[in-house]
Every structure is written in structure tokens, then in C-alpha cells.
Structures
1.
Amino acid sequence: MFFKLARKNVTRSMRDYAIYFITLLFGVCVFYVFNSLENQWVMELLAEQNSDYVRAILQLTDVVSVFVSVVLAGLILYANTFLLRRRKRELGTYLLLGMGQKTIAVLLFAETMFIGLLALVFGLGLGFFLAQFLSAFTASLFQMTVDEFHFVFSWRGVGKTVLYFSVIFLAVIICNCVLVARQKLIRLLQAQRQNEQIRLRSVAASAVMFVLGVVLLAVAYGLLLKRGLLTIDRIFWLMLALGTAGTLLFFRSLSGFLLRICQSRKRLYYQNLNMFVLRQFNAKINTNYLSMTVVCLLLLLAIGITACSVGVNSTVEGNVERTAPLDMTLRLDDDYFVFAREDLPDALEEAGFDPENWLGDFAVVCRYAVKLDEPIPLAEDGRELNDAYIMSLSDFNALTALRGEKPLVLAPNTCGMAEGTEPESYGKPEREAWQDGALFSIGGHVYAPDPKVYHTGALYTSEIDLSDVIILPDEAMETVQKETIWLRQYYLAGDYAEGVDQEHAEELLWNVWDETLFDQVEERGSDPDGSSAFGLSLSTKQFIYLDTMGTKILVLFIGLYLGTIFLITSAAVLALQMLSQAADNVGRYRILRKLGVEEKMRDRSIDIQVFLYFFLPLLLAVVHSIVGIKAANDVIAEIGKLDAVASSTVTALIILVVYGAYFLATCWGSRRMVRER
């Protein structure tokens, strides 16, 4: 009988407040997905490539999970308190029938355990399938091929999820016991008769609060845009305090003059059920302005973290495509080796990697570092350009042809420019001089910039930043004196042939370079000082991709993890509060029905209230996030070009799906609650 009563109570609670159970289920699901990463097959594959990044992802996930558990605990405790408040009359009836407080506490304990077990079972089941999707998604980010896909159930992830949520539900049980012990029978039985005491404020006072809130927000925005996100000091915390206070005053002021403003427009106020809707919404803001402030700040965190993580993701991926245009590049410095560039393919073949078989197209080119005949002044501060990297036009065209680009032609006595990948902080003196129209005196000849020959992006794959290169006509290379050249570098660059096993080719190339190629090159001769190890390097697109994608996946995972939790938390709080209002308004809607108000009009009034309550915090959070993301983008842009459109689009889609789903579920739940009662 006791278990039957608990089960009926849980069933009724889930029917009336399904959002509470869905939120529990989703929390368990997300928690398991990110805490099962360690045992997923994709992480095992990544660990073989770069174990450091995998270890960093897992360690940071553990740290973030503690924070997420605190957020979820707060949400669950809030929802549980909300449910108990709605059941005060029921609990009072139990006491009136002779059930003791200890027995009621045991009943609530059984209900909590029942709900917790259901949420754990269904949440872990859903999380199991989503974890497989996350593994496949991660593999696609790293362009990995999987020979055989298999499902992985992480017992470690299950253990963490059960442990954290057991602690959370234990806190819920303790909270229930305390709340039941503090309640008196008369207060429980008269819970639905207790009216809220609303203090109306004058329009003038509300207007002052509104203006003050806007001023505080404007000051906080100005400090953020001027100082940026990376300066953490007292002013930074003051800026956060001003933003929070401004948000609080904004919502607090709405309860005072929003209704009065609408009342001044008689046609709008008395149209349909607008008078009823506005009064209900005004009372809701007056009661919950503090929670709306918290929800707005949570939405700000959700939007900002998600957008920035996606922005970093697209920026890092764009950097890989920009800095690694070819599958592989082998570099040999002639200063360290007595070597001819024509022998580079033969040396690679003797080492065990035949370029003719493994590479579809490749080119062997040379880049020179030369001393200019005459320094080029760069600015009024006295800086000069004394050296520059140069390359022949034919070598330049050979590299661009690997990517299907058409060959370029230089006019007589002119030079072109190939941009490097060095950040702006390096100064880029060659590009500055070239764009200013300076004349380059090299090898006794003077060359003017040719604007038609200008190349952006890396010419070949390199792990280090590349400097700008001056492109000279082929005949000009013959005039460059030997003593002018202080560094000569040979490059063998190309793409893997179609049809070959690229992973096997990649592994073979690295083994050859690490174990054999050094010996082959040293047999041909090296400088006496024994520094040959510094004159030979290998860069591959896959290695750079894996190295940079570690940062990408770390930021993306943690950003989506936190962003989703914050979004779910804020939407669930709003949904629970609106369902509470729907339950309070049952009597009022019953009167409207008796007065002849059509069901369609009643449903529309509910939808309008839910819409206003959901999208006012979202609107202010979007304004906050625009300023915050602008400051964050200034930091992200330092590592590469930021794709603001992509980050905004992905964030908007996530908000549309998650927040929109809660909005629709709240509308449906509120309508059903009013109709059934």
C-alpha cells in the first residue's frame, strides 16, 4: 500500500510536471555522455596520436563535471521545492488523516528514489546512444577512418553519474525532511488560500530604476569593450557587479511601469484578454524579478560560452586549412648539409619512402634568405628591412600547381609577394615594404612590386609560422651572388596519391624520417659542427591537424557541455515557474470559461504569457552576449580569422532547439493543466 501510494504520487507528478522529469533525464544523459569519453573508442584512437590532449580533455571534463553537478543540484533542489509547494494541501491531508511527519518523510524518500531511478535508467540509456554519436562526430572532426564500428558502454561513466546524482538526491531527501518537519497543519491546508502581498510602485520610481539600470549596463559594457576579457583585477569584478545590478534593476522596474504604459493605450489594453494577460504577467515579474535576473545571466553564459567555443572551433579549423595546404613537406637546410636539391627525392627513396609511388604530385623547390643590397626604410621610427626570403617564379608556380592554381607571370623587373602565416605581432616587414611600393635591390638589380602576383595562404605545409616570400623572375635568380645568400632551404612538398592507404603512408613517412632519413642525409655530408639535426624537418597535414584539433575538441566539448547545462537550467526554471502560475490560475480561467470566453482565446492568453516570460530574459541576454562576444572575439581573432557567422548560426540553432522545445512544452503543459482542472 505504501509503495502503491508513492508510485501513484510519482505518476501524477510526472503527468502534471513532466518538464521536471525530462530535465532530470536530460541532466543524467549529458552527464554520462561527457563522463564516458575516457572509455569511448574514439578517445583510444586519439590517445595513440596525441595522449597529452586526450589526458587534458579528460582531466578538464572531470573538473567541469563537479561544477555541472553543483548547477544541476541547485536546479533539482529548486524543482523539488517547487513540487512540494504545489503539494502542500496534499501533505496536509496526509497529516489530517493521521500520518506522522516521519511517515510522510519516508513517503517522500520513496518518491524521490523512484523518480531518481527512472531518471537514471532512461537517462543512461539515452546517454549510451548519444555517446556513440559523439564518438562518431569526434572521429569526423579528426578525419579518422574506423575499420569496425562498435558500441561501448562505459561503466566508469555510469559509476560517476550514479555517484554524483546519488549525492544530489540525498540532498533532495534531506531538504524534503526539513521542509516537512517545519510545516504546520493549518498552513498546509490553507496553502492555496494564501495570497501574495504585492507592493505596487509608482511609475516615477520604476522609471528611475529603469534609467539607473540602463546606465549601469552601459558603464559595464564600456569597461568590457575598453579593457577586454583578459584583464582580471578589481575593476573586472566591479564591472560584473555593475552588469548584474543593472540587469536586476531592469527587471525590477518592469513590474512598476509596464502595466501602466499599456493601460495608457486603451485600445490595446481592453482588446481581447490583454487586460487579464498583462496583469498576470505584471504580478509574475513582481514576484520573480530576482529569478528572472539569474535566468538572464545563465542565458548570457549559455550563449557566450557556446558561441565562443564554436568560434574558436571554426577559427582553429580554418588555421589548419590555411597553414597545411598539402599532405606533406620535407625541408632540408643546405647550410647544414652538402646536398643538391635534385637528390632530395632519391634520398627519400633510399630511406624507404618512394615519392613516385606514395605521392601523386610533388614538387622540389628552393627558398633563399638573402641580404638586400640596400636597406628599405619601413617607418619613421627608424626600422629597416635588411634581409628577405626569395623564391623563383617557376618554384612558386610549381607549388601552386599542386593545388590546381593557374601559373602567374611576372612583368620584367618586377617581383611578387607570397604571404606567410606569421601573426600580426611579428610586424611582417617584407609585406609592409612590398605593399608600400618599395623597390627591392637584390643581386645588383632593382625590382618593383607587381600587384598582379600576390598570393595569400601558405605555399606548403609547416608546423612553424612562415615568413613572407618575395617572388622573383627565374632569370633574376642567376644574378643573386652566392655571398648574398645566407640560407638555402630545399623543400619536397606534395599530396598522397589517390588510392593509397593514407594512414599507412603517413606512418611509413614518419618512420622513415625518424629512423633512416637522418642517416641517409648524413652519409652525403654535413657540416663539421654536428648540428645536422637542426637542418632537417618534416611536416604533415595530419600531424598538424591532430595537434591543433586537440585544442579544438577540448574547447568545443567543454563549451557545449557548459552551454547546454546553463541553457537547460534557465529554460527549466522558467518552465517550472510558468507551470506554477498555470496551476494558480485554474480558478481564474474557470471563471473566464463561465463568462463565455472561447477556449481559443484562453489558450492564446496562456501562450502570450509564456512567450513574454521566456523571451524577455532571452532578449536582454542576447544584448549582453553581443557585447560579451565582441570582447571575446577580439581575443579569439588573435589566433586567426574568426567566422562570426558560423558561431552565431550554430548558437542560434542550439537555442532554437533547446529553448524552443521548453517553450512549446510549457505552452502545452499550461494549456492542459488549465483545461483538465
2.
Amino acid sequence: MAVHTSDITLVPNDQLKPLDTIDGFQVRPGFFHSFGATIIPGGVSFTIQSHGASSCELLLFHRMAEEPFAALRFPDNYRIGFVYSMIVFGLDIEEFEYAFRLDGPYDEKKGLRFDKTKILLDPYARAVTGQSRWGVTNCCEHGYRARVVRNNFDWGLEKQPQIPMEDLVIYEAHVRGFTRDSSSDVCCPGTFQGLRDKIPYLKDLGINAVELMPVFEFDEMRDARLIDNNQLLDYWGYNSVCFFAPNTSYASSIEYNQEGRELKQLIKALHDNGIDVILDVVFNHTAEGNEYGPSFCFKGFDNNIYYMLTPDGYYYNFSGCGNTLNCNHPVVQQLILDCLRYWVTDYRVDGFRFDLASILGRNEDGSPMNQPPLLRSLAFDPILGTVKLIAEAWDAGGLYQVGSFPSWRRWAEWNGKYRDDMRRFLKGDAGLAETAAQRILGSPDLYDPASRGLSASVNFLTCHDGFTLNDLYSYNEKHNEANGWNNTDGSNDNNSWNCGVEGETDNPEVLKLRKRMMMNACAVLMTSRGTPMFLSGDEFGDTRFGNNNPYCQDNEISWLDWTLLETNRDLFDFFRYMIAFRQKHTVIRKDLKPAPGGFPCTSIHGLTPWLPDYTPESRTICIMYAGYDPEKQTEDIVYLAVNPYWRTLELTLPSLPAGKSWHIAVNTGDPAHLTFPDENMPEIKNTVLLGGRSVIIFTVQ
């Protein structure tokens, strides 16, 4: 675990005097228990580990210089076990960058790739140099370098929101794409500051958690290509260069030796507005790739420890990105644990979404483990004790664990079955009524409430990977030609429907239907048990023009078009209403104590009360939530009626006790009166017409 400057000052200065001189620099053994570069009074402690290296050099560079101005070899007595540590005195952290060179055996079949000519990045680096200008090539073959970072950000009396998982509404966003388009009207487009400028918008929308796509340092130029005169980059950032360093190209200004400051300001501002921050983290692979990829960090430190290797020394590729991090090796476990603790303590992050998390449960030979030690350690770590842990419970190697991901009642999951089943149900596929009821009720068939609680399922219909909500109802097929792979990349199983016309159209009836389909999706998502998540821009109908895999598109395909906010203001207002409706009605989110003589906490119905229709052609389902709300001191009841069928049906509601009546809160089939405030909800009788391809939500007054 990293030791901060404030901790070091507890050591008396007279105990930190130089003991040796190496190439003119005064040095002494450093802090062996503190990996990375740690500032101390009068110097810097540099500490790394390597189990296979025979020697190690610390390289010091002037800023942007090609060659080091010093190469300090660690003396033998500056090594304990497999740890090298040295304090170098008299360094001004603003005047140098650093890296390492390690020597040792080279035998690819044994997984040993030591090369004393390679410049290696500190695995615990807090900042990576040469990355702060977006779209500018940094040749990793020449090595990445690190910068020493001051940890002096003043959090003041900042308090994290500590919002329970079931009360979250998660908004997934890409830092650059969120405000990069000029229509965003922010002072620093495409940056942490740009996102910060949009906090009033997020507050108005009503979400209370932002899930940021990767903000760890990555090299967007790693696989840069020119296709049809368009520059394609590693735009999404799912190829980490360093796990401890923020992506400095997302900062609006240079932050020498203060890297991460703007990100911390963003997190603090979000917290001040009651919004959690969840980071999308990628511990399943790195940007070093397979045997043909560069060697700039882990390959040069201990290739056979950090990566899963075949018996012949090749790289297992359960990530689909060339290599697979060896997460359950004790050294890698410790690295990941140290990293997450760092982001929680130094950046006050509230949660993590783990990309391809099933890899984190694979053994060193690639086989799935029943009780993965890494996942267990994260679940019970005291510093991580209150942060959200969210797994993408599958990987590119075919391991699919939705509903069975090891949890210890701490891990939630991206519920891929909610996405797939509800997409099919909402577009009108037959035979899914029973499955849809389970998904809306929090998927108790997948997540046993007794062992997993009510917050294991993160429900989503859209995310960065796949169609936007608008495109889900505008395209039958993906249109990824701009990616340069002849439309072979991206998923073919989109479960989408174009509402009769492929792509953009001026047909008013098609446009009206598409908007109603989007509202149906929003209404059902916000009245489903579990934690709802949706993709930024869905609330105003943002489009990617049918591209369901724009990982490389740093342009209008991926950037949010904020002009659509006014064009589709009614859709935005509907999202805002549904988010507020969910927060207002606790019965949707959790089981409340039943009212005396009242309805059960949850129940499933069909067109006839208490009689769900699970016949093959049934397309309609109704869900009722009920319970005694202590704040309102009355029984709260919410009744969700979903009709993806294209014909109007007659719906009968359950009988209510004397003095109670049903009222309509939402009716997507009535464009003139989509939503109603509490005081103006129209009262209805027990029978109502449920329009084709529409959703009605009732409450009781």
C-alpha cells in the first residue's frame, strides 16, 4: 500500500541521511513496503519488485529528453527479497521524469522476457508522461516514463454520498465524448472540466451516480488507423497503460506533478451535488498485447507473473485484446488491491465496474475458480468496505457468469440477461411474459434474494457497447462500416427493431413510434427492481447512426449531439419524470412492511388481476409493488402495465379497499398526456384500455 507524504513526515529527518553515493547522487535504502515513488523531506524513495530480474537501474530524464541524465544501479544491499528500493536525495520533482531498466534471463518458452535495453514504466506510477496531448503519438517502444505526483489536494470537509446500491440511478458516460462536440457549450470540451460544467444538467435530470468509462492512462494512438480519410483511435480507452495514473489528456490544462487534480475537482463537485462516482476499470488485460506487442511495463518486470501464459510461453487471450492479466497470482492480486485502495483513498471514488470481470475469477492456468481469492479479497477489504463492486460477469473466452458470479453478498452484476430478454420483450417478441416478469422484479430466478439481496442486478438496456436507445429502435442491423472491418466487428445479436424503416427517416408515424418505444423502455427500466443504468445521451435520443461498436470513433459518431436535447425535449422530460418517480416510490426499490390487510410486496398479473398469462403468444405483463411507506404513513402502491403487443387491449385492475382509487401517473400511449404530477393524476375505474405498444403506470390515492 502506498505511503503518503504525510505519513513520511512522521520519520525524523535525522534518520533520513544519505549513506552512499552513486554517480554523484546521494542515496540510501528506501521504503521497501511502499511501491512507486514517494516524496520525503529532501528526496524521493523509488521502490519496485521483480522476482526474476538479476539487476535494476533507475533512469532519470529531464522533461521530454530522449536520453536519461542519470542511470543509478541499485546496489545489492538495496534489494530485500525481490524488492528494490532506493532514496535519492536532492531531486526536484518538477525537473525530472523516471523509468527503470531491468536485466535478467530471456527465454520466451518459459515466459521470461527480460531485456536490459527496454525502458520500463513503474507499475505504480501516479502519472505517465507524454500522454497529455490527445491524438499525439507517444512511441511506447522508446518507453513510457513516470512523474512524481504531490498528494496535497484539499478535500476539505467533503463527504461521500454513500447512496445505497438499490437507490442509485447510474448514468454511463465517456469523459471526452460527453462534451467534445461544440453543441455541448462548455468552456473546455472533452475534459474533466467539461463534464464538471454539466453537473447542473445531471442534477436536473435526476441521476445520482455517474459511471465513467476508463479514466486510467491509456494511449489512444496505440492502434491508430486512417480509414476513408478519418483518423481512428483507441477512443474508448479499454487498453490500460497504467492502473494508478489518470488519463492526463482528459485534463483541460497541464498538471505537472499535480496530475489528477482536475479529476479530483470533478469528483468533489459531483459529491457536493449528491452524485456517486463509479469508475470503469480494466484489470483483465493491458496495452502490451501478445508476443508481438510492445514491452514497456509488466513484460519487462515479470512477464510470467503478470500474464497468463500457455506451457509454451504464449499469451492466453480471454480478453480478446491479446493478453490476459494473471489476476489470481498473489503479486497481481496485491497490485489490484493496492490500486483500488489508492483510488478510494486519494480520489474518493465510490465504486468500480470491472470490465470482463470473469477473468478476475480465472486461475493461473485459465480455468474458472470456485472461490477466486482476488474477488474474495476485494469483497472483504476494509478500505473498500463501502464501495460498490460491479462485475461485467463474462469474458471473451466464453465464461458467462450472469447470476452465478462469486459475490459474498458484496458484488453486483451487469445483468446481461435483463438487456437481452427485455429488448426482445419490449419489441414485441412472443413467449417472454414470464421471463420479463422475473427481470422486472430484479431477476430472482438469477439472484436469490436470500443470498444476494435486492441489489445484485444492475439493469440496463443500453451501454457503451451496442446500440444507443434511439438506434435500438431505428436499426435492424448494425452499420459499422466506418470502423474499417467490413462491418464484421460488433455484435450481431442486437434484438433491435427499426419500427419499419432502417435508419434516419422523415416519416412522422415512424418517428412517433420510435419515441414511444424509447419511453416504454425508460418507464420499464425505472420501475424494475435492482439498479437501473442507462447510456448518456439516451435521455435525448442521441444516435451513433447504427454503429454498435464505435470504440475507435473520435468524431460525431461517438460525441453527444446536444442539439437533440431541444429537438427531443419531451423525451428528456419523460426520463426526468421517471427518475423522480422511481425515487419517490420506495416500494419499487425495496420490500416495505406490508400494510395491514394490504397487498403483498410484489405480485404478477395479466390483463386480469392475479392471473398472469404465460401462454406462448402472450405479450403483456403487469407488476404491482405495494407496502407501508413510513414517511407517507400510508400504503404505497405502484402498478406497472406493459403491452408490447401492437393492438389495444382491455386491462382490469385489482380491486382496492374502500376509499382508495386508481390514478394514472404515466401513459406512453397518450402523447398529449404522457405524465401527470401527483395532484393531477386522473382517477380511473378498474377497467382501462391499454394501448398497443404502450406502458401505463398507476398509483393509488
3.
Amino acid sequence: MVRLAFTALLFAFATSLAAPARRAMVVHEQRELPAHFASAGVPSPDTPLTLKIALTANDRDGLEQRALDVSTPGNILYGQHLSFEEAKSFAAPPSARVSAVSAWLNENGVADITTSGAFGQWIGFTTTISTANALFDADFQNFTEVGGPTQLTRTLAYSIPADLQQHINLVYPTTDFVRKISGGPKFQSFKSVSKTARALAAPSSCNSTVTPACVMDLYGIPITPATEASNKLGVSGFSEQWPQTADLKSFLEEFRPDTSPSTTFTVIDIDAGEDPQSPSDAGSEANIDVQYSVGIATNVPVTFYSVGSDNPDGILGFEDIINDMLAEAAPPHVLTTSYLFDEDEFTPDLANQFCDNYMAAGARGVSILFASGDGGVAGTTDASCSFFIPTFPSTCPWVTSVGAVQSVPETGAYFSAGGYSNLFSRPSYQTTALANYLTITNLTTNATYEGKFSTTGRGFPDVAAQGFNLEIVNAGETILVGGTSCSSPIFTSVIALINDRLVAAGNSPLGFLNPFLYANPGSFFDITTGSNPGCDTDGFSAAVGWDPVTGLGTPNFESLLAAALAAAA
């Protein structure tokens, strides 16, 4: 018996040497189950689970400061955008950080670790549910979207080692509950609304249907062709939406007969994206984005990023597309995206991870524009809501959010999503504009609105453009569409043409737009009527100056161009 006890003691001692001591753990993220999801049972312990860890950047605050410096008119660094290697020096995690987190994973039997992201900021691995639960003090379960198609395996809380906190931004996917992507044009009839005066004239026919000619007349956009081949315009494509070259040819023949009908776009495939070209593959969303980019930004090279369904980022390719762009030696100077999510589907850490990518793009000289959404103050949902629902990425302070107007004279479109972020605080470039709106409308003292929105959050949209009854060609037929999906490519085209003039004059493109836009409020047609109802309220109302329906207003091309040239000088 003594011999057996001694042997057992030796075994226990050897085991203690082989197994690493468990590190002190701290809760990193936790949340309650969102109302639009329900539990769907516990997965088998040996179910495979692929996870990624976002590592903290070498100098995130330094990158933020540089992005602001190169984007703020009057700063000595204005327009001096970063190369990929310069951005990487700020955004990449130090090698010691990668080694520290990898060593912890190796200690716990996790091998085959991979790195991803434009700056190597993610490390990924595949393990089992049981190992992940033990590794992160988590409780991964299956969840299903109530009344929807989304099925997820998530945990409501997870922990990380206390000594690795400074190295880890987040673990993904864990506490996020991101639903199927939202976006696409609106086909239903629009409500009639009152009208307000504007500065430029447009044909009366633009009240019933909007064409490129209407848009160019309204905003003073010239038909003069762009000249700089380096000045590219990017269009994001998701959800099996594909633009058709035949539809674009017909669109140009009908609505821009002064341009060559052979003008087309190039395609970059991401995540096994495709480019099918038959009438049955026509996507109205993709056709809107491409036709109103090619049709307004005359002769600006257009690139369509076709994002497939094989998404390593786990969020429908939203991060993959920006990572691919960030890694390009010469990315497009401006990117428009007409898809979005509700902000509350993202945890603060995940939203910040996305937003930092857009910050890096701005530092590199890329303008990132997003449609604000078509649900008024109710986000992407048509259901009743007790609190206003902001949309994301529109609420990221490093993107330019585009709302919608309709009719001639223009008024705020009732569907134009706008409001205030619950995750991001008010950026400095918005301080005056947002304070003025709250003062004018007295919303902070209105009992109806009490507690429904954050009075200190980042406001959106930033700008607006036509988004009602636009004519496009889809599958060979001319149809009418509407939504902020129309507005974003229109405003993006304005920026692309201004960039062309800047580059032709030997200057840098605008890059991150918002400090420049808010510094020049007089370069917009101010929209003072219209509202965006939702959540059993009238929503917000348009007003003099910035408002959360139409932002600063719609673009006055000549005034914005003059301001851009002056800032560059």
C-alpha cells in the first residue's frame, strides 16, 4: 500500500509539471439574449467551432490622430495619406503580442493557429465546443432568430486571462448576434410629402421619375468626363447581387446618350464572389449602385467588389472586403455600400473593431460611404420598437452616412434612417452641428422622446441625395426604385468627380470626408422639411442646418469642389 501511494504521488507530481497552471481569468464581454433571438438547445460537446481573436494594434491612438490630421482642412498634414506599410506600422499587433496569445492557446492544446486581416490583426483556430467553453469560461449554445432565418452558436459571456487583457480586443464569434444582411431598394409606393425651395432648377418631370439628368441638374454636376485613371470608385456587392453589363449598356443608351454605351466596370471577387451575366442573375441593388456610379461620375473607373458567401470573417464579408481594399497598393479613392445592420446586433468591441478598419481606410485616403437605411428611426425592422434603432456601420464616426431626399423641390424622405448612436460618442467634427439641432428642436425636453435616443451619440446621416423613384434598367426592363441605396452611389459619384479634379491639379483625394464636410456646411442645399417616423413616433424632423433625416443636406457640386481645392491649397 505504501508503494502504491508513493507511485500515485509521483504521477500527480509529474502531471502537475506537464499541465500549465490555470491563469486568472476576467470577464471580457457579456450581454443579455437579444429579444429577436431564442435558445435552440445545447450543441454536442465535440461540435467543431472556428474562433478568431482580434489583437490590439501597436499604436491605435497614433493611427487615430494621424487619420484626423490628414483629413482635417488646415492641418499641416492635410492630404498626406499613409501608404499601406505606414498604416501597418500603427495597426499591426507587435510580434510579441502574437506570440503571447499563441503561447496561451498552445498551452491549452490549440494548434494550427492562422493569422488574417490586412495587418495580421486576427489569429484564428478551430476547436470544439467543450474546449472553447473551458478555454474562455463560456457556455456556447445554439440560438435561432425569432421569425427569421439566422441560426447562430453563441455565448452570452466569455472570459480571457487577466495577463493577456492588454493584448486582446475581442474573441469572435461569441456575444454578437448579427442577423442576415439588410439592404436593397424599396419598390413600394411612396407617400406624398410637402416641398421646399432649393437653389438649382430641375425638370418638373423629376417629381415623378428621377434620372441621371435630374440628379446632375439638381446638384450642378458637370458632364465633363473625368481624366485621371488612378481615381477609382468602388462599389460593394453582397447577397448574390450582381450588376449586368447588358443592363448598364441599355441604361447609358437611354439616360446618358452623350457617353459611350460600351462604358463598363471591372470586377474583383472576394470570398468566392461571382460575376454571372444573364437576365436571371440581374440584381436590382447592384444595378442601382453601378448604373448611378457610371452614369453620374462620367469616365471615372468603377470597380465592383463581388463578395461571395464563403466568408472567413463570419459577418457576410463586411470585414473581408475592407481588409482586401486596405491591402491594395492603390485602393479606390471612394467606396459606396448600400447594405447595413442594426447597431444593437454588434457588441461595442466588435463595432469598434470594424470602425477601426474604416479609420485605417480614411488614413490611407479612401472615403467610405454607407447608405443610412430605409426604416426611419426604426433601423432595419418594420416591427414596433420602444427605442430608436440606429444602423451600423452608419454610426461609425469614420464613415460618411448618406440619407435620402425626394421630390423637386427636395424634402427629406420619410424612410431616411437617421438618429444617434448608442455605441459611439459624438465626434469633434459634429459638436456644433448636433448641439444646434437639439437646441432648435427642443427634443431633450420633449416627453415623447425621453429616453428613446442618446443625446450624446454620433449623429447620422451626414449628408443626403435623391432616393425616390429612380429609373434603372434591371433584367432588360426599366423600373422605378427608391431608398438610401440610391442616395449613396449618387453622393459617392459627386466625391469621385471632385477627387478627379483634385488629382488632376496634383493634389491628394479627399480621403475621410467628415471633417471637410462639416467644415463647409454652406456647400450643401439645406433641406428643412420632412421627417423619418418609426417606433410609434414621428421620428426626427428636418431643420435648418444638420438634422438626423438629411444630415447637412444635398450636395452643391461647384461649391464643394471650390472648398476642396481651397483646402488642398
